[in-house]
Amino acid sequence: MEEDKMGTIERHVLANRRTVIKGLGAGAFALAAPAILRSAQAQSKEVVYATWGGSWEDAMRKVWFDPFAQQTGIKVKTIQGPDYGKIRAMVRAGKTEWDVVEVNPDFQWVGPREGLLEKLDFNIIKTEDLIKGEELITEYSVPGGFWSRVLVYNTKKFPTGSHPKSFVEFWDVKKFPGKRVLYAKANGGALEAALLADGVHRDKLYPLDVDRALKSLDKIKDHVLWYETNAQAVQYMQDELGVLALMSDGRAKFAIEKGAPIAIEFQDSQLTWTSLIVPKNPPNKENAMRLINHMSSVEGQRLIGNEFTYGLVTPKAYALLPPGRADALTNGPKQQGKTILMNERWWGDNQPSVQDKMNAWRLL
Amino acid sequence: MTTTVQAVPKWTPTALDRLWGRDPDLRPALRRGLLGTPGLLFILVFFLYPLFLLVELSFQAKAGGWSSEHYLRIFNTTVYAQIIWKTAWISATVTLLNFLVAYPFAVALARSKGWVRIVLLISILMPFWTNLLVRAYGWIVVLHPRGLINTMLGGLGLIGEPVAIVHNTTGVLIGMTQIMLPYMVLPIAAQIEKMDGRLLQAARSLGASPLRTFAHVFFPLTLPGVFAGALMVFVLSLGFFVIPALLGGRRDILIAQLIHFNLTKVLNWELAAALSTILLVITLGIFLAAQRWFRLNSLWSEVK
After folding, report:
1. Is this prediction's ipTM beyond 0.85?
2. Measured distance between the N- and C-terminal CA atoms of chain B, rounded to whole angstroms
3. Of A103, A267, B119, B139, which is least packed with CB atoms within 10 Å of its CB?
4. Residue B172 maps to which CATH number?
5. What share of chain A is helix, strand, coil (3-state, %, to 5)?
6. What does the pLDDT look like over B68-102, one tens digit per residue?
């Protein structure tokens, strides 16, 4: 979901502004502290949710958080910018302030390794309707929503029908001349695409042959615009500096709505998800589990499906959507069967060394 | 008539006198020391102690215990050395470009008066007060293939194809140079303002040409400002992060980006600490060298 929100760097800088505002808030807190502490001793009626923010947060507030508060009396407080580094800092300092955090799935393996995550309480969180898969549900995490990276093309240059329909064609700079827009971070999908372009079968991508992928990238490296934030990818395509891109579906759909001359080819789109985790020793552990269960219930998923475009984590809920609505969502009927599930566990284990290799390749 | 001059016994300060600062030899030093105490304490608690923790962290093994594994990894993986070198190279280039732009500007600023001076000051400080991201995106708008500069050059018929001045190293250099400008302009301008104008008159009256006066009198007198500015620009540039990410291209990876990646993405804080420590050692080395060779102190002392 990071993918659909602000880029990391924008968040980083804006977060500093927020710290100042928070500092002001802290002053107010000091004044109100006695009252707050009294109520905390009595019974926790709060749960803190760290989110990527933006319109996604507005949607969650409307269909999940406000109804949850009405039903249970537990208020959901949101924090923007769920930084892994902050989780580590809070847990190590023994002052965890967040109860539920939405993260990229690699963190469900990185987090436990660093001793940062609380095991989920599956007595409270019901999993029978959740989508199955050992990568998807772990002791420490359940999926929060799906999103994908898709092949995007400029419709003026390549009208639909005569557009590239695979990554082999995406790599064909003679037939489809122009700049390709790719994510500069190692787990941003470029390596998977490079292997598909080189003829690796979609079921045999992992473990990634990184050297082969980089050799494949060599073939187009003078035709690539690299992006560091998702906003840049949209900008490149809107400005028509790039004619092809591998970018997040949410961003692409948003740009299409805004009138950008682009369209999506769903074939071999890379499916990934956002994970819901609970940092170690959260202030409101039970409320955290109850909120997660509320969000991932079939009813919760039906509601969010009407409000936002992320793929639903309970397959049953798709059938409850109004006709046609499912097509707007990630992994909807139009996309079904065309996706490749990212092996986020492999990425959780290998990201540092692969990033080193990719950096070395970039400097060449 | 003779008078005997009685020898005045020499006053020797007791330990107590010393403590109270009554010893005339120690007094200024002690007073300075006392004045500096709050600042020193602040630096000790909020800067040196965290810095110590950082260095300590860099020697901790991922599995627990002490180790130099992170340093070994950095020294044994060429890409880290390449990125450190790239960082130093970009910082040095930014420093040089800054000098070339800032020097004439500083002269104009120091010599200007009234509203011209205000306009010059604002033009250098306004961007300084503007959010880094806003400036980065501003530069993209200006440098973009269909941005202001390319449209202008194209309209004048000077170029056929748009020139690539953003999303590559050129873009990084332009963006960083502008952001660092105040750090170079202000020390040089300060140096020019405290210059004794009579020295220039003396040189001219002794027959030196304007160029010679500049080369042998004016320029050497501004050197402490140049060195101080250069040092600040270079050291601050070593830590740049947002600009290379937004204005740079495939090859523009700086060490701060590596530190950020390890800190927030893969949570290898130990490696991030080792990279930061290396950056710190390089910075300190440069600072000490500058101190030794360029007598940086003369910037904040009277002209001798």
Report:
1. no
2. 48
3. B119
4. 1.10.3720.10
5. 45, 20, 35
6. 999 999 999 899 999 999 999 999 999 999 999 99
- Helices then strands, counting H and E runs in chain A, come out as 13, 9
The partner residue sitting opposite B267, judged by closest CB among A84, A184, A241, is: A84
Distance CA A306, CA A325 (A): 7
Topology of the domain covering A147-272+339-363: D-Maltodextrin-Binding Protein; domain 2 (3.40.190)
Please answer yes or no on whether A229 and B266 come within 8 Å at the CB atom: no
Pair (B159, B39) in one structural domain: no
A293-307 confidence digits (pLDDT tens): 999 999 999 999 999
Give the type of residue at A129. Answer: D
Residue B250: which of A226, A241, A355 has the nearest Cβ?
A226
First-last CA distance in chain A:
32
The phi, psi pair for A165, rounded to 5°, reads -110, 5
Q: Are residues B232 and B165 in the same domain?
A: yes
Residues A78, A50 contacting (CB under 8 angstroms): yes
Q: Which fold has domain A2-146+273-328?
A: D-Maltodextrin-Binding Protein; domain 2 (3.40.190)
CA-nearest residue of chain B to A16?
B131
Domain boundary among B5, B24, B58: B58
B78 interaction partners in chain A (CB closer than 8 Å):
360
Residue B270 in any domain: the answer is: yes
Nearest Cβ partner for A359 among B83, B264, B265 = B83
